[in-house]
Amino acid sequence: MAQISNREKLLQAGLDLIHEHGFGATSVRDLVRAAGVPQGCFTNHFASKESFGVEVLGRYRAEKRADAHQTLLDDNGSPLQRIRAYIDVRTERFKRNGMRCGCMFGNFAAESSTESEAIRQELLDIFAENRAAMAYCLEAAVRVGELPEDFDCDETAAFLLSSWQGAILSAKTQRDVAPIERFKKYLFASILH
Amino acid sequence: MAQISNREKLLQAGLDLIHEHGFGATSVRDLVRAAGVPQGCFTNHFASKESFGVEVLGRYRAEKRADAHQTLLDDNGSPLQRIRAYIDVRTERFKRNGMRCGCMFGNFAAESSTESEAIRQELLDIFAENRAAMAYCLEAAVRVGELPEDFDCDETAAFLLSSWQGAILSAKTQRDVAPIERFKKYLFASILH
After folding, report:
1. Which of A75, A96, A115, A149 has a CA positioned 20 to 30 A from the CA of residue B147?
2. Helix B79-96 to helix B178-186 angle, to the nearest 10 degrees?
C-alpha cells in the first residue's frame, strides 16, 4: 500500500478540523498534531496558512463536484428529481456530523472572505461553477417540459443556491434538519414550477 | 459630556472589528488597541472573549431590533411595503462598508456556533425573535388582504429569513448588492403573493 505523504496527511486533517471548527479556530499546531506529522512539516509544504486554506477548500470543492456530477449534471432521469437528489445527498453529508458543521463554502464565505482575497477568489469561482451546474439542470427541466419555456434558469440558479446556503447556515445553528426541509418545500412549491 | 467608560469603548471597538474581521480574527490585543484602553482593562470587564462576543452580538441585535421596530413592527402602512422597507434599511447599512462585512448574525452562526454554546444560544434567541417579528408583519398582511387567508406566516417567516441570510452571505462574498436584489425579486414575485 502506498504511503500517505505528510502533505496529504495535513490536507486530510485540515478538511476535518476546518470543517468542524472553522478556519480561524484551527491553528497550525492543531493541524500538525491531528495529522501526526513533525512540527516543521507544515512550512515545508505550504507557503502560508492562507494557501493551505485555499487547498483545503479545493479538496472540499472536488467532493461537492462529484455530488453534482452524480445528480445535477447526470443526463439521466427527471431534472427536477436530480435537483432534489442533489439536496438530499448533501443533506445526508451534513447529518453525519449532527448538522453541526454546515457547508465549508458558506463557512469560509462568512469567516474569511473579508480577510483573504485568495480565499474569496476561490469562493467566487466555486459559486460560479455551482451556479452553472444548477442552471444546466434547470435548462434540462425546461427542455423536458418540467419548467415553462420562459423560465430564467441562470437567475433562479443563483437565487436557489444562495437561499440554500442560508438554509444550511440555519440548520447548522439549530443543529436540526428542519430549515433544509423547509427550503426544499418552498423551492418546489413556489420557485420550481 | 459624560465620559465613555473603558468597558463601553471596548464594546464599541468590538462591534466594528468583529463585524469587519470576524470573531476569531479579532484578538483581545486588537480590541484593546482599537479602544485605546490600558492592556489589563479587558479582563477587568469581561470574564472571557466568549462572553465579550455574546455582549457584542447583543449590541448588534439591539440595533437590528430598532430597524425591525421602524418597519416590520410598525403598525402603519402596507405590511408588504414594511417588509420591503426592512430589507432596504438593512441593505443600506451593508452598503456603508462596501457590502464586505455582511450580517453579524450570519457571520457568528457560520464561525462560532460550533465553538461556543453561549454564542449559539444567543443566536437561536435572535433568530426566534426575528422570525416572530417577520411573522407578525406577514399576519398583518393577511389581515389587510395583501396575502391569502391560508398563508402560513410562521413557516414563511422562517424560510424568508434563512434565505435572506444566504443572500447577505453571497453579497458579502461578491461585494455586490446583486444577490440581495435577486432575493427581493424572488421573494415578492414567488413567495409573498
Report:
1. A149
2. 170
